[in-house]
Amino acid sequence: MRDLLELLDRLHRARLIVASLDAEVAEAKRKWEEDHQGLLNRRLAAQDELNMAVPALREAAIAAFQETGDLAPAPGIKIVMRTRLDYEADEAKRWAMNHKMALSLDVREFEKLAKAAPANFDFVRQYQEPAATIATDLGPVLDEVNHANP
Q: In sequence order, what are the residues at sequence separation of 6 or more whose Cβ sits closer than 8 angstroms to the Cβ of residue 20?
């Protein structure tokens, strides 16, 4: 019993210390955020611009691909064709239940099977859809473009 009480006291003291340090960290974070509000606002604005630039570039790259058929419509951008499936969810669920796969449709597993053996799924339409991939580090790509086109 004495060991339990000692451990209980140890836990209590540790919790108090952690709670005190949590409060200290929260206050330091609050003060830092207050002192660096301008930096945080600039970061937020930059993130907003990034969030708009990526989909705009992907959309333009896919449009260029659809117009030209070029799988590399610009430096740092590649078009990859992804297999997509189009089907009625109710029909797929009926298929899954008839094949004793599940009580509800496991979309991921169903689509894996439909892609592997499309002849077994006459109600599924398989099609290719372009997706644009963008190089993570665009600095070298842009340097190369700027060097080639001064």
A: none
